[in-house]
Design brief:
11 strands; binds thymidine-5'-diphosphate; globular; about 325 residues; alpha/beta; two-stranded parallel ribbon; binds nicotinamide-adenine-dinucleotide; seven-stranded parallel beta sheet; Rossmann fold; about 15% strand
Length: about 325
């Protein structure tokens, strides 16, 4: 019966993790600490709102008093809270440094003070930089850090701080560096939900540059299970890379798969201006978590992608509320009217 502090639990992965955890560990208590930025949405958790094992606490990880208060009696921290969108980090990097770097350091201080049994930090493969196209190279736990966007640089900073608190103060930490997630409750500013919802709205799908960029797509529930396995059997102080794909699928191929699932033609694709400093390819070697903890994805990309399309078809109000709200201004500014 552990008390788990989930930071950023109202976001995409955090809310999936809370659903996963309440289902699989029904005796644990979860406190969801979230600032409710544009990406935080309590609708993601409407179905668990009244669950006595779950509590939402509004708060900001960059506020030491609030963090100290919420950390009391916590056994395990699972730290998701972050600014997470690369395009926004190019436009406004300051918020990324503040939340991702300073916010993580403030959480680490409080975790140390309150002697938490585990601080699990959720990070990204983007800290490793970019790989060339058409190579068999992959990132693993020993890959040198080489972040190239303000987002990935701020996540790299947070990873370094987490390791420094383990080495310097003995804080019991684990880290996962995972690939691009996709699945339910994914904010429609990211490629897959943007594509699905644009198609449902009868709009074109914007593809950056030549579209020949590769991401290692990880279904969010597979990711949640990976974190669970690291929390129960991972070694303290260790990092685990979590990917999913066994072969490269570029953005254009991802969009074509979605169009096919949805019965549309490739005429719906619109090539738009490329992202500055766009990382060409990410690919993860997930041998360590597979060999040490027995983790592997439950299904392949095509299966999970079809399931994701179904979720967006069945939850139109969820994404329409987002697309008709504050996000509309960002969309029009970023992609044009
Ligand atoms: P998200 O943007 O959907 O959600 C982030 C959440 O953090 C939101 O609920 C937001 O309100 C909250 N938050 C932001 N600033 C905060 C602050 N100062 N104090 C408290 N809460 C704050 O992000 P996500 O996609 O769910 O990503 C979660 C974590 O996983 C992030 O750390 C991200 O770097 C990492 N990650 C994400 C992906 C991905 O594909 N989405 C891949 C690898 C790693
Ligand atoms: P994104 O979902 O923003 O994740 P990340 O930048 O963290 O990998 O983007 C995934 C890929 O899709 C990336 O190569 C950029 C590309 N992309 C587009 O081609 N069009 C878009 O409108 C967006 C948002 C992303």
């Amino acid at each position: 019966m552990a008390k788990i502090l989930v930071t950023g639990g109202a976001g995409f992965i955090g809310s999936n993790f809370i659903h996963y955890w309440l289902t699989n560990h029904p005796n644990d208590t979860i406190v969801n600490f979230d600032k409710l930025t544009y990406a935080g949405n309590l609708e993601n958790l409407a179905d668990v709102e009244k669950n006595p094992q779950y509590l939402f606490m509004y708060g900001d990880i960059t506020n030491p008093e609030m963090v100290d208060n919420v950390m009391k009696g916590v056994d395990i921290v699972v730290h998701f809270a972050a600014e997470s969108h690369v395009d926004r980090s190019i436009k406004e990097p300051a918020a990324f440094v503040k939340t991702n770097v300073l916010g993580t350091q403030i959480l680490l201080d409080a975790a140390l003070k309150h002697s938490v049994k585990r601080f699990h930090h959720v990070s990204t493969d983007e800290v490793f930089g970019a790989l060339p196209l058409n190579s068999s190279e992959k990132f693993n736990e020993n890959t040198a850090y080489d972040p190239r966007s303000p987002y990935s640089a701020s996540k790299a900073g947070s990873d370094h701080l987490v390791r420094a608190y383990a080495e310097t103060y003995g804080l019991p930490i684990t880290i996962t560096n995972c690939a691009n997630n996709y699945g339910p409750y994914h904010f429609p500013e990211k490629l897959i939900p943007l594509a699905i919802t644009n198609i449902l709205e009868g709009k074109k799908v914007p593809v950056y540059g030549d579209g020949l960029y590769v991401r290692d797509w990880l279904y969010v529930e597979d990711h949640c299970r990976a974190i669970d396995m690291v929390l129960s059997n991972g070694k303290i102080g260790e990092t685990y890379c979590v990917g999913s794909m066994t072969q490269d699928v570029n953005n254009l191929e991802v969009i074509k798969k979605i169009l096919k699932i949805m019965g549309k033609t490739e005429g719906e694709i619109e090539f738009v201006k490329d992202r500055p400093g766009h990382d060409r390819r990410y690919a993860i070697d997930w041998t360590k978590i597979h060999n040490e903890l027995g983790w592997e994805p439950m299904a392949d990309f095509d299966t999970w992608l079809a399931k994701t399309v179904d979720w967006y078809k069945e939850n139109t109000k969820w994404w329409q509320d987002i697309k008709n709200g504050e996000y509309k201004n960002y969309y029009e500014e970023h992609y044009g009217k």
